[in-house]
What we know:
alpha/beta; Rossmann fold; seven-stranded parallel β-sheet
Amino acid sequence: MKAKILVTGGLGFIGSHLVEKLNELNYPVSVIDNFSAASSYKLPSSVNFFKQNIASPDLSNLIKKINPEIIVHLAADNRVTAPFTDVLESNIIGTYNLLQVAKTANIKQFIFSSSAAVYGDPEILPIKENHPKKPLSAYGLSKLVDELYLEQYQSFFATSIFRFANVYGPRQNSHSEGGVVAIFIDRLLKKQKPIIYGDGHQTRDFVYVGDIVEAIMLAIKKPNSFTLNIGTHQSTSILDLIDKISFLLGIKTAIINKPFRQTEIKDSLFDYYLAKKTLGWQPKTDLLSGLAKTINSFRGL
């Protein structure tokens, strides 16, 4: 019998892809989501859905009803420029509430989606898991606080922490500030100029959502406590990203420059050696292939 799995934020970008994969592999899946992502994704009929805020005191009774063996916690306010008061309830209080409930529910594993934002501006590239943590944003700070909370619960269940690089792919919200790939594709398809904050030479490590799902699936099969970077060890500037998307669309475009945002990091590049050693994971989707799939999804192909 496969483990019963609860996915928080299961209607969101990463969550919907994970739920789809779990359902395809016949895992008993339940989803908690509060519709904050305004997703249009339709859950498979075999998936149990519950509308709930994870910070709610009613969460305990709901978790007892679902009775999961594994919780994959993806629900979060992921706005890098969000004020601390906005991320406090969803990202810190919500995660703590879920951990407390998970403890009483006797789950076996708690899988958590953290972020490159915990590192802040890196001192050394590529970034390894032991790199100093100096988050620049309330979002990054909230994810780091959550990681510290998870460490306190390792005696009750396995805590599997993933620090994701810049995730992209089909279903990413083009209104989400973290989804620069989706934003650029949406604007270019509408014949609008992409907006760049700063000079565009800042770099990111873009990892395809299908590879993210693969990492989570490997963790489900190997329920251990760990903290792992999930990225590609490939650096791409924002200007180069626009060039690649423009090439795939067969167009040329001008850009709009705006001042650099201080809550954003300058460069990011992940070392994923530990993920490969621990889970046997490595990225399979190169950037051009992933961008092509994402563009096709925006076009409804």
